[in-house]
Each structure stands twice: as C-alpha cells, then as structure tokens.
Amino acid sequence: MDIPILLILMLVPLIGAIATLFMGGSKSKYAVYVAGVFSAIALVMSVYLLFVSDLGSLDISYVWIEAAGLRMNFALGVDGLSILMVFLTSLLVFLVVLFSSTEKDRPNYFHTLLLIMEVGLLGVYLAQDYFLFYIMWEVTLIPMFFLISWYGGPRRHYAAIKFFIYTHVASLVMLIGIFALVFQAAQYSVSGLIDFSFASVAMNAVLFSSTFQTLVFGLLFFGFIVKMPIVPFHTWLPDAHVEAPTGGSVLLAGVMLKMGSYGIIRVCLEVLPQGAISWQWVMIILGVISMIYGAYACIAQKDLKKMVAYSSISHMGMVLIGIGCLSQIGIEFAIFQMFAHGLIAAVLFMVCGLAGHNFGTREIPLLGGMAGKAPIFAAFMMFAFMASLGLPGLMGFVAEFGLLYGFWEFMVANNCMWMIVFGMISMMLTAGYYLWAMQRTLFGKLTDKIDIEHAHDVSKIEAVVMGVLCALIALFGIMPNIVTDFIVNYAMILGGIF
Amino acid sequence: MSLDLSFINTIFGDFVPIAPEIIMIIGLLLIPALFFITKNGKVPAACALIVIALTAVLTGLMMYDGGFYGTYANLFTFDAFSGLMMELFLIVVFLVVLISPASPEVTKHKGEYYSLLLAASTGMLFVAGASSLLTIFVGVELVSIVSYALVALKKNDPRASEAAVKYLIIGGLSSALTLYGISMLYGLTGTLQISEIGAAIASMSFNVPFVIAMIAIIAGYGFKIAAVPFHMWAPDVYEGAATPISTYLAVGSKKMGFVVLFKIFLVMFVVAQSGFATGEMQYVFAAIAAITMTVGNVVAISQKNIKRMLAYSSIAQAGYILIVLAVMSEYALTGGLFHMFTHVFMKGGAFIVVAALITVGIGEKISDYKGLAKRAPLVAAAMLLFLFSLAGIPPLAGFTSKFVLFSGAIYVNGVVQTQWIWLAFIAILNSAISLYYYAKVVKAMYIDKGESEEKLKVKKSHAVAIAICVIAVVALGVFPGPLLQLCADAAAVLFI
Lengths: 498, 496
Description:
heterodimer, A: mainly alpha, 3-stranded mixed sheet, 3 strands, 74% helix, 3% strand, B: mainly alpha, two-stranded antiparallel ribbon, 20 helices, 75% helix, 2% strand, globular
C-alpha cells in the first residue's frame, strides 16, 4: 500500500493542534470537540496499525536535508518495540482530551498543547533517523513546559523551568553521543555521506570498536536515564508532577518517561551491544537503587500525587533492570512494563488529580473515610493502586512477574542469587505504601479537616475515561499474550544478540 | 534555465569583482542629494532599500552564474565566499533600514543617517571581497569610523554620547593594534597578500615578532567581535545606541569581524598547512572561544536590561563561532557560516522586537515585558521563537546551525576526533545555561501578569521586518538544505 499512513498519523494531531488554536474566545467551548475529533482519528489509525500484519511495509523515508556532506531523512517506521508506544500515546492523548473537557482556562491553548505533545511523542517513537529523533525528543519539551507553567499548581514556575533545563541538559549530552555515533558510522560508509538514518548507522555500527561503544553508550545512556528518570537524576520529576495539571501528569508519566527507556533499547542496545555488555552492571545497580529508593520515598510522602510520582521512579527502575538483563525475557517484559505502567500511571494520576479537584486537597493526612463520600472514586483508586502494586489478574502483576523472572535468570547466570532480596524488599515496600495510603485516605473515620460539603464524586465522563483504562488493564492482565504477541519477535531478535 | 548575464560585464568591464560595492557607493552619494532636493523624509529610506535590493540581486546573479568570480587588482576577489558574505551583510542592512523610519530614535538627519548606513555596509562588502591585509584594514576602518558617527547620532542623549566616546576610544585602540600587527607581518614576510603570507610563514621558525603580530591582530579584531577579554564595550554601546544601530552593530559589524578572522587565519594557516605555529594558534582560539561563550552566558543571566542581555548573549554566540578557528576545518567553517546567517535572523529579530516595543512605549527592562503575551500576542510569539532559536531548541534555525557547528568540533577532517570534544561539551553546556536567561524573558512575557492589559499595535514596518525574521528562523530550521550547501561551497573556497 502506498498511502504513507505513518506520516498521516503524525500530521493529524499537527493539523488538529492548529485547528484547536483558533478555537479561542467565544468559540472556546468547541476547542475540546475539535481536539477530540483529531485525537480520535489518530487513535483509530494507531489501532489500525495493531492489525497490520507486515509492519515493515509501512516504513517511509524521504531525503530531507542533503547539504555539506550531511544527509538527514524524514524516515518513519514502526516495529514491535514502538507499536505499543504509538498506541499508548494516541490512546492517552485522546483520553486526556476527554478527561480535561472541563478545563475552563483558555481551553484552546490547553488542547493545542496536548496535540503538539502527541506530535512530538509519536515522532520520537516513529522516527527512523537520528536528526528527526532528536528534534522530536526536544519538541515534546515545549508543550510540557507551557502545560506546567500555565495550568499548574502554586510552584509551577519553578517546576517548569527546572523540568525544562534539567531534561534539556540531558538531551544535549545525548546529542553529543548522537554526533559521535553518526559521524563514526560515516567513516565506514561507502557513499562518504554522513547519513543520519537508523538503518545506515546500524549497518556501519558493527565495525565500532568496543571502547568506542562503551564511551558513546555512556553519553547516550545519561541522556536517556534522566528522562526515565533513574535515581540520582530524578529530582525534576516529583516537582514537575506535583505542579503539572492532571492531563500533563498523565502524559508525562504515561508516555514521556517511556521515551527514556525506549531510547535505551532503540539506540543503546540495538546499535551498541558491546557497550551494553560493559554497562550491564551499571544498569542493574541503578535500576535496583531506583526501584528501592523510589518505593522507600513513597512511604514518606504526604501528597498523594508526589507519592505516585515516586512510585513511577520505582517502576521505571524495574524497567531498567529488565533492560539490563540483556535477555529476551528481560527486554520483553521491560517493554511490557512500559506499556503496563503507561496505562496504570494514567489512572493513578487521574485519581490524584480528582482528589485535588473534588476534595480540595491531595494531602493524605487531611483525607480520611472518603470511600463513604465518594464510592466510585474510591473504587477507581483501589483498582489503580492494586494494579500498580501487582495484584494477580491485573497488568502490573504480569509485568513484575516477567521482570523478576528475567532478573532471576540474570542472577543465576552471574551467580548472585542473593540479589532477589532487592526484588522482595521492593515488592513489600510497594504493597506497604499503597495499602497504607489507601487505608488513610479511603477508610476509617470521615475526615473533618476538609470542606466535606463540597466534596463530590467523579463525573460521568471521568468515570468513562478511567473505566476504559481499567478495562484494558484487566483485559491485558488476564490475557497478557495479546500484548506479548506484539513484542515477542522483537525481543527474541534483540535478546539473541547478547 | 539560463540567464544572459553578459550585461554585467558590459557595464562594469574590468571592475566586475567590485560591482556590488560600486552600486552601493553610487547609492550612498545619491541619498543625501535626493533628500536635499525633495526635503521628503521618506525618500532616503526608500532609496536605500532600493539600492540594497539592487545590490543584493546583482550579487545573487553573479554568484548564480559563477563566471563572474575573479580578482580585481590583487586586492579584491569575488568568489563563492565573498558573494555569500556580501549577501549576509546586505540582509542585515536591509532589515535595519526597514525598521529605521518607524524608530523614534532616528528623527533628524535622515539623509545622513541612511547614507552613513550604506557607507558602513559598503565597508563590509569591501571586507567580504578583500584578499589583502591592506584592503581588509581599509574596509574595517570605513565601517568603524562610520559606526562611531551612527552611535553618536542620538546626540541629545547622554547615554548615546557616552557609548559613542567609549566605542571611539576602544575602536581606535583596536585599529592601532591591528595596524601594528599588520606592519609587523609585512616586515616579516614582505607581502600583504594573505595566501603569500601563509606560504612565507610555513618555512619560518619560532620568532618573537611573529608572536607579537599575531597577538596584536587577534586583540585588534577580538574587539570587533567582542570576544572576551575584549568585550567590555559591547553592552554599553548596544544599550546606548539607537536600537536599529544596536541591531546593526550586534548582527552586522560583528559578522564582519568574523569574516576578517576567517580570511586572515584560515587562509594563512591552511596555506601554511601544519607548519609553524598552527597548532598553538588553534589552542589560543579554543581558549578564547571557551572563555567567551562562558563569560557571555554567565553574565547574561544577571542582566535586567534586555538590550544588555542580548548583548551578552551575542558575546556568547561569538564564542560559539570561534570554535571554527579552533578546529580549522572546512566542515566547522560551514557550520560557522551557517550560524552567522541564522544568528542574523534570530538575534536581529530579537533586537527588532525590542525596537518595535520601544516605539510603542514599552521599556528596555525585562520586567517591562510582563504580560506581553496578552497585550501583543503575535509579537510575543515571534520573540518566543527568536529566543528559543537562540537557545537552540529544535526545529528552529538556531538548533540546526548549532547542530552543524558543534558537531564540527567532533568531526574533524572526515574523522571523529577527540581533540576538541571538550570544546563541544563546553559549548553545549553553555547552550543549556543560555536557556535559563532566555526562559526568564519567556516567563515574563507569557506567565507573569502585567500591570496593563491594553493592546499594543506595532508599526507596520516593524511587523514586516519581524515577519521576515520569523519566516527565516522557521524555514532555515526546517529546510536548511539549500543555504547549508551554499555555506559549504563558500567554506570550500577558503580551504583550497
């Protein structure tokens, strides 16, 4: 088929963003409809992608810049690694648009920013060219900066600037890594052109020396783990999450953090396998530290949203462990966890946002007995917490089970079975902070510290949005093979390299 | 497609290589005369725009054909490099002339003002075409002397007078230093042709006069490009001068300094090959580059006046371009030239926004920009684009040019080298620092609440100039290919 469907997939939200921008002033109540229609089209298209049997046939590549010996391509493609992320992006953007339909403050800008985010995120996951990849990587920053600084909480200016500069610095370090990668590859290229496409770099990358691979892996790895984020480079995340509006948080945790782990798999592992082997222990150790530190920090949090933010750090630490195993199972379930965490974190942040909105506060000590006051809210919160802590039957369990299995394989191979202790500690801490938070907010005596008169339950549209996500979480929890079928081939090939 | 361009030869005869300058000189003589005859304040500006456009078209045609490349009396050369640089200077002066009539700072002396602007530009064109140290020096002096007068034009404003005197003294010092260095070089090598000097020093051994000559020339032209530690004048002068003139100095006369440095040092040392002193010179330039970008960016953070902030950011940008002289490779020069072009539009655009806002009564402090997004949404959006482009956020022009320029520090002469990778790191970290102070302006415009909600309407000519810059910043970011190729062709000229 000759229709460049991936290009159209990226253009739809872009056109939607421009169209939504003009829905200002008296027309502002239509902004959400325009944004909804365009994000729905994008969602339908990415669902269609799930049913395409030969994904390779969708690849497109146009020469974009060819000058001064450089060649940048506008190349898009989708494979087992990116297809779930593409689906997740368009699903979450659509749901966030619906969820934020009550936004009263300049809704046209809000939804425009969401759609620009979608363009950037889809670009990152679809790009098959380092230049395009980097541009899209940075494009995601600007809408998020404005989402936080226009629609965020009281300390939004600080959080927005910190987020922007922190992640921008990391991207720049990554950029040096990309320079080194591409220019080194160009030395071996037959045409003599400095070609930025993934394919051309990958072809020449087999000739890289292992010292070079180790060095460049480090540069790229730093750029990616700041985005994930991995302890000790995580400090921007809690600030950004606490101050971001709910829609921003959902996209930030749901898909933006995955850019980091996606980058590690796509660039570091695929292109620099030797480097990956020399950095394997660093990945494992940083992953373990993140997993445990994130969970540990959760216990101390008073703000529900900050707690969920730290739990994201913990879960992304697990993803890094899975990647660090450098095996089929590890990579497969790292990707699974990325997808699972995307869905679960979306519900989690929606719940936190609703707590702030419906009850007037997200402070755990101020809440209590909310289950009686807002039963539907309580049901969603319990479901999300259970999914996140790994209750069997839900998606989080499958992901954690697979990751621990991969980790176990790694431990057996390296004769360090005692490391399973870390997995156990993390699971206990996770169960602990979730259950404790739930106990304090939902159950017990009805609080008298908040304005209970005005506390209300979730609205219909919010319930529908969260309901869809919860249904998917349960469906994929019971039948994980639906998801793994997409990943398994990719993971087998990549895991086979090591 | 073929054009019959033989008429250029018919008109200019042997003078073809300096044809653009000839048109400019005729124009700059005509303008005051026309003004005195018509007494109409609009005539000089319109006339200047026509002359500049005519020259730009002529230069473009001559570059397009390629058959007009040649040398005039061993003093001036017209080639792909000088042609491209001439276009750069013409774009700058075009933008400056475009915004001048609407600027309240340019009220009296209209005839002289535009004539002087064209005179300065003629000097720049001479520099672009110069192939001997003598013509370079004369061209630079033409620009400098005219610039002193232009800065002092706001003569009732003590700040402008102070700036002009400061500029005059420092400029005089820098000219004297340069001339001293040039005379030493002449004494050592017996020639003023740059390529011949290069050949002569290739076989030279270490000697003190050469070192003194180099120091004098670097210091002299270091003042022109405002490289640290020769930068102190720049913020004062940019702040004191009328904003169109600040624009002209920041984006125009600075670029001329770079053209001179490229011409002298790249040609000289490329001819000298890896001979005497090349390696040492590279480290000198690398150190100046690193210090210049760092000082520029760090000091810019604390600035409260937007013109001063832009001045320091301009110093930092000079530091980035100096990477070219440290690396001395064709690819880096391509990036440097490309960055000079994008810098014209993004820094020029930012200055034009400042000029446009001064015209409608907004002050020069960053705090005066609070709430601007509500009062003038399009101007604020343009400023946002310029600032993000300066910070190197994709997909804007500044990103693409920094991309090529910084990668030039890694990819040297066809291989990945680690020699200058530290410079790339410093440049990239500086880029991140710069984001902080640009974001402060963005925050003032978009996030802070202003005291007034009243809508602002900028003058039409300002709006046109801003629109040109916006289109260029976006277009060069998304489709940099053609201009990048022109820069590569121009860079190749210096590396034969």
